[in-house]
Amino acid sequence: MAQTPQQRRANLKFQKDQEARRGKSEDQIKKRVEKAPKSPVSMFWLVVLGFVVFGGLVFEVLSRLFLN
Questions:
Q1: How far apart are the C-alpha atoms of 42 and 36, rounded to whole Å?
Q2: Membrane-spanning residues where (predicted)?
C-alpha cells in the first residue's frame, strides 16, 4: 500500500527526530524543550462559535433598538 502525503510527512518528521537523538544520552534528550500542546479546536471553529454567540447578541440588540 502506498503512503499518503500525510503519512510521508509524519515519517520524515519521525526520522528527523530519531537522527537528532542519535549519539546523545537520555539526560541530553530530556533537557530538550517540548513545544506547547496544540489546541484540539482550530481557530476557524472558535471564530464560528464567537460569531454565533456574540453575533446573535449584536443582532438582537440592533433589532430591539431599531425595530421598536
A1: 15
A2: 43-67
